[in-house]
Amino acid sequence: MTTQSEGHIFKRFDKEMQQLHALVLQMGELAADQLQQSLKTLENEDPQTAQQVIENDARLNALDIQADEEITTMIAKRQPMAKDLREIIAVSKIVAELERSGDEARKIAGLTIRFFQPEDNHPPGEEILRDIFSLSEYVAEMLILSMKAFDTLNLSIAAEVLIKGQKLDGQLDSCLRRLSTFIMQDSRNIGHFIDIVLGIRALERFGGHATNIAGHIVFIKNGTDVRHVGDSAILASIKENQS
Questions:
Q1: Which CATH number fits domain 3-242: 1.10.4200.10, 3.10.20.310, 1.20.58.220, 3.40.50.261?
Q2: How far, CA to CA in Å, does 171 sit from each of 164, 209, 230?
Q3: Tell me: the pLDDT tens digits for 83-102?
């Protein structure tokens, strides 16, 4: 193969990677927007719009399929090696995390329908839903930061996401304790207890996907496989590679 033809191949590969990069950023923006729109339907007690948000998840699923097809084609045509292959594998995992994030956002829209659609239902008050609102904003910020880290391959921003992930467990425990208090104060809230807990768990997983994306960015940047490593060890790895 001549140097000139090799150059053309490299340019085509770079262009395909840029297109894939843009597609992943689009998925991240859509996943974050899905959560924010779901939260808005809950705040506005709007089951009709919530149903539209659930249906919009198909857009994220379509992008997931498109990204998988592009990745498969790139591997088959370009047969990337070493760092390029590592990046493609990590990106494929980020795509999967984003698709699952959309599934968790959809569950929050499902709460709106469950709470506010039945006419004879006793909907939960704003106070008992307050933790879902605050937790949604927290994990949405985690995802936005993780996508910023992906866009720039910035390990410092990835570390911010990991630190937020460490604090998430404590917030969840506090949410569940407050929820138990609301149940004791008003027995009418018992019927909503399981649904709200499921919503909180969905947000926990949403934040977990953002944390996982940060880990995949570490893999792209320095080749460290952090799938079965605690967040503290990942942060130590980031500091080591930045020193």
A1: 1.20.58.220
A2: 10, 17, 18
A3: 888 899 999 999 999 999 99
